[in-house]
Amino acid sequence: MADAPSAPSDLSTNAAPASGYETPLAAPYIPRPHVSRRRSTLSTLRVAVLDMNNGVANQGMRCLRQILGTFDGQLAGVSVLWDEFDVRRQNQVPDLRYDVYLCSGGPGSPWEEEGAEWEHKFFALLDGLRAHNADPASARKFAFLICHSFELAVRHWDLCELVPRRSESFGIFPVHPVGAGFDDPIFDGLLDPFMGADFRSWQCVNPKHKAFHALGAEVLAIEKDRPHVELERAVMAIRFTPEIVGTQFHPEADPSGMLLHFRKEQRKETIVSAHGEAKYRAILDQILSPVGLPLTFETILPNFLRDAVRQLQEAHTLEPTNV
After folding, report:
1. 71 CB contacts (<8 Å, ≥6 apart)?
2. What are 200-210's pLDDT values in tens digits?
3. Which of 171, 266, 283, 305 has the lowest tally of Cβ within 10 angstroms?
4. Model-level pTM?
């Protein structure tokens, strides 16, 4: 880490096409179910994408599809198949047949649906993945948790105080690696600090060290330094287990889509009215900077996927593809 200057997949019977960042668009993006069309591959990476947006139109799901579609074929001999699960709206949660689980961000408080059926299923999945990976005879399974999903995991495993922010975090801000984060593979190639798209009203503070130790979890990053504010910096990334990692910010935020989104006149007026012209210009500057948002987008989730594929290939556990 450097210093800064059209047929559904047959993997699941309960997956459904999802509707769409947590900021609403003018109209939902409704994709076709994805099927890899590569013919001469040796193995298949099976991915479950958990849509936590509760039916709210958003940019995050489009970005995850884009990353998976780009990743399909990047590594010789590996194709990517994925299914999408509408978790909060339709109580759809995948089982343990997948290799990788990508869990999106979503709107609202991480406490507002406490005890809901979908939440019980989601927490059962997290515990199931942890138990599965604890068995040395089982093939590893990997998960990446984004924003709302990250907050839910922190709450489930009681790792931090999960509290409202004094004001909404809205923009692209520095994220500082700490401790194990300097050597974590998801940050390999990033600057210190790097930039993260951060849109949230909640924060994880005051890590509970006994809980971290019991789980084997490690804090990987914290939010920007604010010496003029007498508040502890929030946790921005955690490796919950060797196979399960998550971020409070949005590593899936793509520069081109974000630029188009924020340049819309109605969106610009909303941001300027709520946060001021300077904030709006700062967001655009970080979207355009090659060492800002583009570097984060091109690094974190691709690193996570490459590392998962590497470990699965080394263990010879990727499923052969029919050729």
Report:
1. 80, 302, 305
2. 878 899 999 99
3. 266
4. 0.83
